[in-house]
Amino acid sequence: MADVKVIQTVSEMHRVADQIRADGLQIGLVPTMGFLHEGHLSLIGRARRCADRVVVSIFVNPTQFGPQEDLEAYPLDFERDRMLIGDFGGDLIYAPDAEEMYPEGYASYVDVEGLTRHLCGASRPGHFRGVTTVVTKLFAAVKPHVAIFGQKDAQQAAVIRRMAQDLNLDVEVLVSPTIREVDGLAKSSRNFYLSPEERQEASVLYQALQKAKCLVADGERRADVVIGEMRELIERRPLAQIDYIEAVDTADLQPMEEFSGEILLALAVQFGKARLIDNLVVHTA
Amino acid sequence: MADVKVIQTVSEMHRVADQIRADGLQIGLVPTMGFLHEGHLSLIGRARRCADRVVVSIFVNPTQFGPQEDLEAYPLDFERDRMLIGDFGGDLIYAPDAEEMYPEGYASYVDVEGLTRHLCGASRPGHFRGVTTVVTKLFAAVKPHVAIFGQKDAQQAAVIRRMAQDLNLDVEVLVSPTIREVDGLAKSSRNFYLSPEERQEASVLYQALQKAKCLVADGERRADVVIGEMRELIERRPLAQIDYIEAVDTADLQPMEEFSGEILLALAVQFGKARLIDNLVVHTA
Questions:
Q1: Residues A24-38: pLDDT tens digits?
Q2: Residues A247 and A111 in one domain
Q3: How many helices (H) and strands (E) does chain A have?
Q4: In 3D, which of A42, A5, A263 has the Cα closest to residue A149?
Q5: Distance from the B64 Cα atom to the nearest Cα atom in chain A, whole angstroms
Q6: CB–CB of A163 and B108 under 8 A?
Q7: How many CB pairs under 8 A join A and B?
Q8: Catalytic choice (A37, A40, A118, A127)
Q9: pLDDT at residue number B14
Q10: Residues B213 and B163 in one domain
Q11: Which residues of B touch A110 (CB under 8 A)?
């Protein structure tokens, strides 16, 4: 396996992207913050199947972290990431540093209204502004035909899809299923923070989502009842601190009191240093 | 002269832009709100010299008008514009309608901080958010290599240059000199609103800028003195209502009290229905 080429500047990324496009090839982008897990690798596999050249970006984006969040502690292992990307079919790594992305005098931001009001948007003010801004920059630098995001970050995927459509970006946004551990815990770089005890308790997130799915399948339509049952289950785990549990319409991400159609059940729960998120889409039909 | 092709949808614009790029040709974009005058035509000429294919966009962008502004009255003459664009070397017109640009559920906006705080940014809240958002959309739709803006809208040009650089848009932003009437009045679609009396008085804008230039050339360095002289001159015209007269650093568009280096002298003055802007860059060296 050849070493995967690493690009660190916007200007070189533009040049390489133009060359790939001039050759008539399709570019697939997988944006990541590095410390890759099987979730990322499945996104790379998806990109491999949709595009001729797969670019994986690695950038721990400071503007999407709040001041009290885990930016400083965020795990990094560039050489391991580079090896994995090569093994799983990535062609290029785009890894600019913070100075390249946000030089002195930087002043431009992208906002998506509405969709960012609830869920993580409510508990992490400024987070989605950071995400939409950096993704706009990554799209502009890499010039992908298609970009792959994970369903684990369901709100992020919806926001980026809306943004790409609104801003007329010629990028197809695809969303790939969440990859889980055997006990159902969604794969996440932040699982790395979990102590053995926290790791064991964290499987309750998936159990709560499964329980909600069963309740809806059995005919329950009241959001407060479903959320109440989920909350009760999670609160039994002493190390779990619930940030939110919400049920929103998959179309506009606004809360639903009475379920009908497609509902996104989403939650964020803190275990020690790790703020974990997960979600499931359920249907009343 | 053949009829200039008109494109009205984002998807067709993407397709045509991709085709031009696949042919190895350079795209030049001249964004306009239509009702073209010699200022626009000089931008088209500049684009003609820098690019192989010139796209002129025509879109009266509602999001950059305030509720009390002249959106409804803004002059339109598409057939005249189309003829002029053909005569002056444009190859394509991109003219989406408001529904194509801002469909129901539209939610995404681009902001540039800092540079938008003074001048028109202060007197037209939301104006530059509308401008940066629509220009991002036009860049994404037309995929230009180069885009040409007019120096008459000096703040707009600075904001868009900042935005393109910040968001890593692979578009060269060029700024072309202001085109003036024989008495110095800057060409503007809004001059159309002026009554004969207002039109005659409006030449005072250029006179005030020239006076300021002379004062600075003669060694005056105090912003309040220069601005005071400009204000006095303009206030002698009974139909003129000053919106602002400001002196700002050309780099960051922040007000300067003591002149040094490059100073942007900029003003906005209302004559009846027409809010006119103009500016001049002066040097202390």
A1: 999 999 999 999 999
A2: no
A3: 10, 10
A4: A42
A5: 16
A6: yes
A7: 89
A8: A40
A9: 98
A10: no
A11: 108-111, 167
The token duo for B164 is 């393109």
Q: Rounded CA gap, B200 and B212, in Å?
A: 20
pLDDT band per the 50, 70, 90 thresholds, residue A2: low
Residue B228 vs residues A23, A97, B155, B231, B275: alpha-carbon distances, Å: 60, 47, 22, 5, 20
A184 occurs within a structural domain: no
Contacts of B132 in chain A (CB under 8 A): 108
Residue ending a domain, choose from B176, B204, B221: B176
**Residue A275 CA: distances (Å) to CA of A103, A116, A232, A266, A282:** 29, 18, 19, 13, 23
- Residues B100-120: tens digit of each pLDDT: 999 999 999 999 999 999 999
Query: Does the active-site annotation cover A40?
Result: yes
Cα–Cα nearest to B189, from B104, B71, B75 = B75
pLDDT value of position A217: 96
Structural domain includes residue A181: no
Q: Where are the alpha helices (DSSP H) in A23-119?
A: 38-50, 78-87, 98-101
**A14 interfacial to chain B (CB closer than 8 Å):** yes
A163 and A276 belong to one structural domain? no
B245, B227 Cβ separation under 8 angstroms: yes
Residues of A in contact with B166 (CB under 8 A): 106-108, 137
| DSSP code string of A195-220 | -HHHHHHTTHHHHHHHHHHHHHHTT-
- The residue from A150, A176, A202 where one domain ends is A176
Long-range contacts of A213-216 (CB under 8 A, 24+ apart): A213/A265, A213/A280, A213/A282, A216/A259, A216/A263, A216/A282, A216/A283, A216/A284
* B285 within a domain of the structure (yes/no): no
Q: Which domain holds residue B36?
A: 5-176
Query: Average pLDDT of A2-9?
Result: 91
- Supply angle C-alpha A99, A101, A106, rounded to 5: 85
**Whether A143 and A36 share a structural domain:** yes
Q: Which of B160, B168, B254 best tests the A interface by mutation, with the highest count of A CBs <10 A?
A: B168
Q: Are residues B199 and B170 in the same domain?
A: no
b (16+ CB within 10 A) / e for B207-246: bbbebbbebbeeeeeebeebbebbeebbeebebbeebebb
CA dihedral B252, B172, A22, A143 (to 10 degrees): 30
pTM beyond 0.90, yes or no: yes
Give the ranges where chain A is alpha helix by DSSP (H): 10-22, 38-50, 78-87, 98-101, 120-123, 127-142, 154-166, 196-201, 204-217, 223-235
